[in-house]
Amino acid sequence: MKRMKTLLVIVAFLGTILAAQAQRRTVVKVYPKYGTVVTTISSPTIVVHNSNNFYYADGVWYKPRGRKYVVCAAPRGVIVNTLPRGSKVVYVNGRRLYKYRGVWYKRTGRQYVVVTV
């Protein structure tokens, strides 16, 4: 009987641990592919490059098309003030660069320029 109670306590304890683990949530961020058309952008920054407006939000670049926006590649040479969260520092041929979702940035002063590698 005592062994049965001990076994039940152990099973109950393991059950609570597993239940606590199951309640943790993993957030997966899904980014749109190039060419995807969206109607709204959440908190965009407007960046003017070569007389063209680009919208930049959470590491994704957009070009305006009428009242909608098209996901596009980052224009080479464009300057941004901040990098998106999650960007990684990478050294390429002795140069310190930053990479986020396939876009490479180089620090110039307090800003970052999109470069090709």
Provide a concise account of the structure shown:
With 117 residues, the protein is α+β, with helices and mostly antiparallel strands.
How far apart are the termini?
70 Å
Mean pLDDT: 87
- Runs in which pLDDT lies below 50 for 5 or more consecutive residues are none
User: Secondary-structure element order, as H and E?
Assistant: HEEEEEEEEEE
| SSE-based structural type | alpha+beta
- Total helices: the number is 1
Please tell me how large the radius of gyration is: 23 Å
Largest sheet: 5 strands, antiparallel
Q: What order do the strands of the largest sheet run in, or round the barrel if closed?
A: 1-5-4-3-2
How many β-strand stretches?
A: 10
Strand content: 35-45%
Helix content: 10-25%
Any idea what the shape is?
A: elongated
Descriptive labels:
117 residues, alpha+beta, 5-stranded antiparallel beta sheet, 1 helix, elongated
